[in-house]
Amino acid sequence: MLTRPAPTDHAEYFQPYVDLVPEDDVLRVLEAQLDERRELIGGLSETRAGFRYAPDKWSIREVLGHLSDCERVFAYRVLSIGRGETGSLPGFDHDAWISSARHDERTLASIETEWAMVRHATLTLLRSFDDTAWKQRGTCNGLATSARSIPYLIAGHERHHINVINSRYL
């Protein structure tokens, strides 16, 4: 059974993401985010999707692409930890990834389609875990991480960025 993570289940800097998910059923939150994001994106024009609220900030397309990239990383981490991986999983430089991803050269619809497919794959993986998998612990970017914390990180990370989009971009 997937239970709420303790603060010791993840790096301290992830706690604000976990705090953004007060619900106990994080899989339902992840499912609901499919519709929430579709609603948000459905009202955006291609021009608006390229908007940056400051010159050194990401565009909306880049933020959305970042969410897909990070979810893939988090899904790999939960898969690895849930399967008992004992080696340390690497970190990544999200700024370097954004500059090479070229999200602004894509349509908003293609970014949304990709994200929805990533989310469906993530949900399928998470639903396959049993109690043993959820209790597994591993190391990500040199820091102790539990499998059960990662779904909360995915949901909270998305809420964080959607909050930024709503407050600074729209």
Main sheet characteristics = 2 strands, antiparallel
Q: Give the SSE string.
A: HHHHHHHEEH
Q: How many structural domains does the protein architecture include?
A: 1
Question: How large is the share of residues in beta strands?
Answer: under 5%
Distance between the termini: 38 Å
Q: Kindly state the mean pLDDT as a whole number?
A: 97
The CATH class, by name, is Mainly Alpha
Point out poorly predicted stretches: none
Description:
With 170 residues, this protein is mostly helical. The protein has one domain (18-169): dinb family like domain (Four Helix Bundle (Hemerythrin (Met), subunit A), Up-down Bundle), CATH 1.20.120.450. Helices cover 59% and strands 5% of the residues. It has helices spanning 15-19, 26-42, 46-49, 60-82, 94-101, 108-127, 131-134, 150-169, and strands at residues 137-140, 143-146. The protein has a two-stranded antiparallel ribbon with strand order 1-2. A hairpin with a 2-residue loop joins strand 1 (137-140) and strand 2. Helix 2 packs parallel to helix 8, helix 4 packs across helix 5 (94-101) and helix 4 runs parallel beside helix 6 (108-127). The mean pLDDT is 97.
